[in-house]
């Protein structure tokens, strides 16, 4: 019976300490295969990452750093430290500027570090978390959507079939 009491007390203590944790997360814009393809004529592109604090009871401070790719991407907000209130969402605005010497096929690797800053007293040990977002920026050409042309040709085929069928029906009724 003593083992069961220890397990129960341990479980209660764990539940107590879980409430001190934070559920810091980052939402990134959708990029298929973590690749952003930018046409050569488009010189700038804005991105928005969203910081969230879904758990815990205290505000968290998140520092955003460009770890790789600073030659093409920068943070457009006034500060790179964001305070995220529990249950709140805070946007991080980034801007990609394609270099003038860029050519089709050029690839730039981007790595963004988002780390929580802990407030620890002098002589104490603090824990923080860091989330890395990685993606590639590829300079390419605008891809023409072939689906619209296919839909138009399919529409013409269907209209042609309707005309031919209606022609035969009208001709048959006249006889």
Give a written overview of the molecule.
With 175 residues, this protein is of the alpha+beta class. The N and C termini lie far apart (99 Å). The protein is elongated. The chain has helices at 2-18, 146-174, and strands at residues 24-27, 35-39, 44-53, 60-68, 73-75, 81-84, 89-97, 107-117, 130-140. The model has no long low-confidence stretch (mean pLDDT 80). The chain has a 5-stranded mixed sheet with strand order 2-9-8-4-6, with no helix packed on it. It is 26% helix and 38% strand.
For the secondary structure, the number of strands is 9
Count of DSSP helices? 2
Q: What is the average of the pLDDT values?
A: 80
Content-based structural category: alpha+beta
Radius of gyration: 28 Å
Proportion of residues in extended strands: 35-45%
DSSP helix fraction: 25-40%
- First and last CA, distance: 99 Å
Oligomer category: single chain
The arrangement of helices and strands along the chain is HEEEEEEEEEH
Largest sheet: 5 strands, mixed
């Amino acid at each position: 019976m003593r083992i069961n009491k220890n397990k129960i007390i341990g479980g209660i203590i764990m539940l107590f300490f879980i409430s001190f944790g934070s559920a810091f997360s980052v939402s990134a814009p959708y990029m298929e295969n973590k690749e952003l393809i930018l046409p050569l004529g488009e010189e700038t592109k804005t991105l928005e990452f969203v910081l969230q604090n879904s758990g815990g009871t205290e505000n968290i401070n998140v520092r955003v750093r460009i770890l790789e790719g600073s030659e093409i991407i920068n943070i457009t907000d006034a500060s790179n430290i964001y305070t995220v209130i529990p249950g709140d969402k805070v946007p991080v605005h980034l801007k990609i500027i394609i270099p003038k010497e860029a050519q089709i096929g050029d690839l730039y690797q981007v790595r963004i570090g988002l780390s929580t800053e802990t407030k620890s007293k002098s002589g104490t040990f603090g824990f923080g978390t860091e989330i890395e977002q990685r993606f590639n920026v590829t300079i390419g050409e605008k891809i023409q959507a072939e689906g619209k042309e296919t839909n138009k040709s399919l529409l013409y085929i269907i209209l042609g079939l309707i005309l031919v069928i209606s022609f035969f029906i009208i001709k048959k009724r006249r006889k």
